[in-house]
Here is the input.
Amino acid sequence: MSRSSNLEPPKVKPPRPQLKPIHGVPLPEWLADNWAKVEHFQAKPDDVLIVTYPKAGTTWIQQIVDLINCNGDAELSKRGPIDVKIPFLEIFAEGFATGVEMIEKMPSPRFIKTHLPIQLVPKSFWEKDCKMIVLARNSKDNLVSYFHFHRMNYALPEAGTWLQFLQKFVNGQVAWGFWYDHAKGWWEAKNKHRILFLFYEDMKEKPSREILKVAKFLDKVLEEDVIEKVVELSSFAVMKDDPMVNYSTLPSTIFDQTISCFMRKGEVGDWKNHFTVAQHEAFEEDYERKMRDSSIKFRDVL
Ligand code: A3P
Here is the structure.
């Protein structure tokens, strides 16, 4: 399995993209310019959509889903990179097959990744009543992870300084828009559609419990030893060294992992190493204002 395309991946780092709004949500221009292809994507009834805000643990939940589908078989799960087995709906990267092209060639049932806020999800996913697995992560760790990801990912705008990035995040001037709207929108929808809503912090606390929830949602019955294998193979330590999930197979002109590793820390509470006391107070006050109309509750320490 490969990210096949007739074109060559870039040999030098491309210029950083601008953000362009689509229905008011800032998206990287490579996506905004191809928006019609995403909007008109045709889902199938047995498609399963995996939804996250960027850096909420997407690759982790993708790996868990793939391992469940492989019944914990490590060899089978190594048949290809995670972004080929579970393509990213809205990716359009120079030199690679697009997410839409990859998905259209896949046999069913298809598992598909997206970062889209609920209002931008292609209509056919709702018409076909597809299952969706949403994974959310507390805003501060999510922000920290997104900051470091901007530093190393040339398909996103420059991170700027920590303070500049913090301000952009709070003001929703980052790719895929406001974290707050993303979390609230999906939380609100979870009881109205076939949605399993998970938290990164719960997965850290007791992965086997959350893996069982995913298996049940996908109508899979896992033996005890299989659950143990899925826990082990989806642990941070194993995934960090697994080229099928750590994105080391992507050229450094896209992900420069000498700047920051894709599998960076995988912890709850790393925000404490980034926020000053004053930044934290201001962030919390703003958070309270933005989130007070939602019942969603996150933990930012374990
Ligand atoms: P950090 O930058 O905080 O380390 P995404 O896949 O959405 O891009 O998210 C990446 C984040 O999830 C990174 O967070 C990464 O380390 C973390 N992550 C990936 N696999 C993980 C795992 N098995 N356990 C815990 N965290 C994981």
Observations:
- The first strand starts at residue 19 and ends at 22.
